[in-house]
Amino acid sequence: MENTKVGNYRWVICALLFFATTINYIDRQVIGLLKPTLEVEFNWTEVDYGYIVMVFAAMYALGYVLFGTFIDKVGTKVGYAVSVSVWSIAAMLHAVARSTVGFGFARGLLGLAEAGNFPAGVKAVAEWFPKKERALATGIFNSGTSIGAVAAPIIVPLILGAYGWYEAFWITGALGFVWLIFWWIFYEIPSKQKRLKQPEFEYIHSDADAGEEASPVKLKWGQLLRLKQTWVFVIGKVLTDPIWWFFLFWLPSYFADAFALDLTKPSLQLAVVYAATTFGSIGGGYLSSHFIKKGWPVLKARKTTLLIVAIAVTPIFLVQYAGNIWEVVVLISIATAAHQAWSANIFTIVSDMFPKKAVSTVVGIGGMSGSIASTLFPIFVGTLLAYYKDLGNITAGYNILFIICGCAYFLAWAIIQLLTRRMKPIEL
Fold it and tell me: Which residues form the Major facilitator superfamily (MFS) profile domain (predicted)?
């Protein structure tokens, strides 16, 4: 009842973040779905594709640094708009690429600009939601990664079959410019938003950091890197981001290699896997918010949820024993859903522990670190799969990768637990 009385404009903001994240993931997913087509067109090997993914990841890491700091300086509205504009242009540039190097260039620019999505999104949540709702709001907008990944396996094959791979990049790349119109009309920080009523403004600022607005400020990295709170987020990203990227960029080819799935047609199996991540993202955000509303300390609620998530990933060990494609779909769906629950909470920890004026910068530092790890992981993945492909048993390579996936979250949670025994929110 409290929320209906105070108003719901903040959920309009959450919807904008959700749709931006959906478009973000549609644009990055396209190349994975077109991989079999492009491999024939450009004679790519598994290692070639691994390097293209690596370029995206490397520039994504750099983009986190640039956009994390840039968004804290110029504000969420302008920073997010710049990010979406550049990544939409980059997505369409894939259509004019005529070589592996050309794809690498377009992919790098896409990664650079797409990195602005989460620093901007997490900062917007910190600006528009009290702490008890932030994990849920983050879970909802983060579920756009799932919806984007569900939509892409349906949309891209249809465009590919009707028009060709060029048009798949042109059409999906143009979506960001449609979103920009709504963003520019409806977004302002709460103190400047005329559509926001006073009761909701007071509810948004009902935490201890009431009155603080995310005004443009200059923050020093050295100061942030000396804080354990920063390293909690860094560890949480470094050990788990590469896993999500593996699911995103190699899952379509895994099903094609292991079960002869035809990626030129809409894939129900991939749609189910990525749809499950929606429930994980929202459910993970809801669970920690539920604990907080029951009176749990904020950090305890987040860490308990992260532990539950780490346990939920482990059934992926059983993929190698599955007898058919739908058993594999179920096991991988649980793991990908758990990752998104992890993501919703690890992002929210930043806004729990840092003032709003530092949120984008800290997200940029952690996101950069996770992307550096994700830059290196595709080299390992591509080399491993190429080795087992030469042996005529590529699924054995995938099984090793699934075991790594199952271990990563427990390791990350254990380190976070050690870092946060007596941790409190900081003031800069």
Answer: 13-424
